[in-house]
Amino acid sequence: MFFDDMQGLIRVLIIGVLGYVALVFWLRVSGKRTLSKWNVFDFIVTIALGSILASVIISKSVALLEGILAFVVLIGLQYLITWLSVRSSKFAALVKAEPTLLLSDGEYCTAALKSQRVTKSEIRAAIRGAGILAIEDVAAVVLETDGSFSVLKQNNSGIKTALSDVSVY
């Protein structure tokens, strides 16, 4: 009921350690971008890597080398997508969402809030998290491509070059 035999437990222990070491190795080789804040593709790769590791550890039908090859394929695809995104703005537009302006000069962008499924209370929480007490002191709140909020304080110049690539509804 608790286990079939000691050989199965020893296999899980050995394959688990080796699979984990292989995953850490390939993540280190692939660079920091693989572990950055998640966009859709990062999410898929991360979940898939965890699934592969679990399959290698638990399933006797998945060999360690097959799992390591699966790690390499997924991390390689992630690397290729990010490499292409950096070199081609058209490709980047296909695979990455644009940041979205949610609040501008103290005014909520209602259409953007609805389309991005963000509430006003989430905006206020982001503003408080930035250490700002008054919405009127905020130049903009942007929903970034990784789902995080950027809160930008008002400045005296009125120049907002940081918002040049942000979608406005």
TrEMBL record:
It is found in: Cell membrane. The chain crosses the membrane at residues 6-27, 39-58, 64-86. Keywords: Cell membrane, Membrane, Transmembrane, Transmembrane helix. Its main location: membrane. InterPro entries: DUF421, UPF0702_alpha/beta_dom_sf, YetF_N. It comes from the Bacteria. Residues 87-161 form the YetF C-terminal domain. Residues 17-84 form the YetF-like N-terminal transmembrane domain. PANTHER family: UPF0702 TRANSMEMBRANE PROTEIN YCAP. Belongs to the UPF0702 family. This is DUF421 domain-containing protein. It comes from Pseudoalteromonas espejiana. The lineage of its organism: Bacteria, Pseudomonadati, Pseudomonadota, Gammaproteobacteria, Alteromonadales.
